[in-house]
Design goal:
Shape: elongated
Number of strands: 8
Order of helices and strands: EHEHEHEHEHEEHEHHHHHH
CATH architecture of the largest domain: 3-Layer(aba) Sandwich
CATH class of the largest domain: Alpha Beta
Helix content: 40-55%
Distance between the termini: 31 Å
Number of domains: 2
Strand content: 5-15%
Number of helices: 12
Structural class: alpha/beta
Largest sheet: 8 strands, mixed
Length: 265
């Protein structure tokens, strides 16, 4: 697949826009990207911002070499049925619909399918995506998806039966992080800090810690140990986490997310 390939993007919400940006950043020409979006104002906004084209669904999938499905899971069946009559039979389908398995799509269409679980940090260019390949995906098609997803952050390949675990880890993971930040801000205010100062201190501490984890080359365990002096303030806080069985709580939360993902499939 080359840079002149035509890419159809079905659904142009926030995630759809992030993927459009990634496609262009990875080398796909903007005039080779066509969106199908029912909201006229949103469609016109993306055309003006990125220089992409727009068309109805039937025409879009007829000419596309790759089709990015960025639709709600509950809308997937109807969209697939609508695509069936005109879709390019060689087109790659890349699904971003949470919980919808490859075999669900294959019940409607005979095209090769790659299933992707992204996360919300994709919108900041720091996303984490995991992809699973269906039958008939060519090496060139895999390379194309890997390349443009790399423009959104990082990407790995996993067997599809692990996609529910991915959902529980990186898909839902940003919400775990935000919940912890909320708790830290609230805890700082209980200690007497103002809301503004509590927010500034917490946000920058979290951002700095994440940057250190990314750039130091050291594991989270090593970095934690480095900042934890025996009988010091950090040790006292971590002992409280241990008493509350933080690790077990996180594991139970992730299992709950995994189980719910399986239920939604």
């Amino acid at each position: 697949m080359n840079q002149q390939m035509c890419v159809g993007v079905i659904g142009a919400g926030v995630m759809g826009e992030a993927l459009i940006s990634a496609l262009i950043a990875s080398g796909v020409k903007s005039d080779s990207v066509t969106i199908s979006e029912k909201r006229v104002e949103r469609r016109d906004e993306l055309i003006a911002t990125y220089g992409v084209n727009a068309s109805d669904l039937a025409a879009n999938v007829a000419s596309a070499h790759a089709i990015l499905l960025v639709v709600k899971p509950q809308d997937m069946a109807g969209v697939l049925d609508e695509m069936r009559e005109t879709i390019n039979p060689q087109a790659l389908i890349v699904s971003f619909a949470a919980g919808k398995r490859i075999d669900f799509i294959s019940q409607h269409l005979d095209n090769p399918v790659i299933r992707v679980m992204p996360n919300t940090a994709t919108m900041a260019g720091a996303g984490m995506a995991a992809m699973s390949l269906g039958a008939g995906v060519s090496p060139a098609q895999k390379e194309f998806v890997t390349k443009f997803l790399a423009a959104t952050g990082k990407v790995i390949e996993v067997p599809e039966d692990l996609q529910d675990a991915v959902t529980a880890t990186s898909g839902s993971g940003p919400a775990y992080f935000f919940k912890f930040v909320e708790a830290m801000v609230a805890g700082a205010q209980e200690l007497g800090l103002s809301a503004d100062d509590a927010t500034t201190l917490t946000h920058q501490t979290i951002i700095g810690a994440a940057k250190l984890l990314e750039t130091s080359g050291k594991s989270a365990t090593t970095l934690r140990e480095n900042v934890t002096s025996p009988n010091g303030t950090t040790a006292a806080a971590l002992a409280s986490f241990d008493a509350g069985e933080l690790s077990s709580l996180v594991a139970r939360a992730m299992k709950a997310a995994r189980d719910r993902s399986q239920e939604l499939a």
